[in-house]
Amino acid sequence: MNTTIIRNGRVIDPSNKRDEIADLYIVEGEIAEKSDARDPKSNVEEIDAKGLIVAPGLIDMHVHLREPGFRHKETIESGARAAAAGGFTTIVCMPNTSPVPDNPSTIAWIKDRASAIARVNVLPTGAISKNLAGEELAPIGALAQAGVVAITDDGHCIQNHEIMRRAVEYARMVGVPVLDHCQDYNLVGNGVVHEGYWSTLLGLPGWPAAGEEAIVMRNILLAELCDHPIHCQHISAAGSVRLIREARARGVKISGEVCPHHIALTDEAIQNFDTNYKMNPPLRSQTDVDALLEGIADGTLSILCSDHAPHADFEKEVEFDVAPFGIIGLETELGLFIDLLVHKHATIDIARLIEMYTTEPARLLKLDAATLSPGARADVTLIDPALQWTVSVDQFHSASRNSPFDGWKLRGRAVRTIVGGRTVWKL
């Protein structure tokens, strides 16, 4: 019998409202009581976690793994390695691949591939519309039966409100949440950066905040009409935070997530035309950043994630206008959030940060995860909240290097990732 004892750590388990210095016992890949770990025939591994936080395995519910179709950017294997190095035991992959997972067979391929080569849990989402075209619904019932944890057209946004309404109604029937990339194509046009001072000064087409806020409002109306959860992805604008706050206060089943780049940077960073600062939605103003921090502090924005979007060097090394949107984030997001939210801004404490990475996404996606209760699968992340380190893209496990944070000095990071009782990465 294989037993692991994690000793002297600060065990933070939001699902059980637990925050104490204690030992954690793992027996045969499951969280166990102390009495279950006393078998004299056990092979016992002891881990000294003094000064560390022992948390349920972290979940990133917004990751692009690019496979099938774009292996030159990332693969399920390399993305899972990056996730483990970032402290994540579960990642949720987006459907903008080729072929698009708008059918059960592609979902089956992703699940089989992940089970064969991924060192963390990889959960697929299904497309809302066929081929992400926004014109005809994918077979949402069949996708749910195939095992998707949510439906989304992430990277694209359904513009036809009637189609989106029917998607939400079908999702309610089969019990999966709807995740939405909020972008009104008519308002945004060919915008590539936040519409404001810097877009005007640099002569770059503007991406107005209203282009996000209009779809957030649409989603609030549909979540209320259909009485079903809609989750707004990578919120970036102050108006979006205000709309979500007001709707949640009325009991509407709407939620939002934040990515680290939208609080770590503003649109001032684009002035050198470095395409590693080009993402969708774009970096916005300091006013927007302040609103995001306020939304995190008061619980309006309830989930943290990366929007990990890998691109090969040759794709990013072009003119700013034509470069693809997106940056990688799996290996830097936890450090950035701890550094910014806990240490620098004191927006939230470390226990709430862990909750936003565990019980909040698990509740939305109805996952049997994110707990250190006895009998649960032993997915555990060990975090050193005080560890000072420097980001080096050359040491990343991801297949891509498109990060704007190379050389940043951060405080706090994961030091060991355990999946099913087995250490899959340690610093």
Could you explain how this protein is built, in words?
The chain has 427 residues and is of the alpha/beta class. It folds into two domains: 2-53 and 376-426, Roll (Urease, subunit C, domain 1), CATH 2.30.40.10; 57-365, Alpha-Beta Barrel (TIM Barrel), CATH 3.20.20. It contains 14 helices and 18 strands. The strands form four sheets. Strands 1, 2, 3, 4, 5, 16, 17 and 18 form an eight-stranded mixed sheet that branches. It has a five-stranded parallel sheet with strand order 9-10-13-14-15. Strands 6-7-8 form a three-stranded parallel sheet. Helix 4 links the parallel strand 9 and strand 10 (178-180). 57% of the residues are buried. The model has no long low-confidence stretch (mean pLDDT 97).
Précis, in short:
This protein is α/β, with parallel strands linked by helices and 427 residues long. Helices cover 31% and strands 23% of the residues.
Features:
single chain; about 425 residues; alpha/beta; Urease, subunit C, domain 1; TIM Barrel; 2 domains; 5-stranded parallel sheet; 18 strands; about 25% strand
Q: State the helicity in percent bands.
A: 25-40%
Q: CATH superfamily membership of the largest domain, which one?
A: Metal-dependent hydrolases
| Low-confidence residue ranges | none
User: Can you name the CATH architecture of the largest domain?
Assistant: Alpha-Beta Barrel
Within the CATH hierarchy, at the fold level, what is the topology of the largest domain?
TIM Barrel
> End-to-end span in angstroms?
26 Å
* Total domain modules: 2
User: How would a crystallographer describe the biggest sheet?
Assistant: 8 strands, mixed
Radius of gyration: 21 Å
- Write down how many β-strands occur, each being a DSSP E stretch of 2 or more residues: 18
Q: Tell me what portion of residues adopts beta-strand conformation.
A: 15-25%
Number of contiguous helices: 14
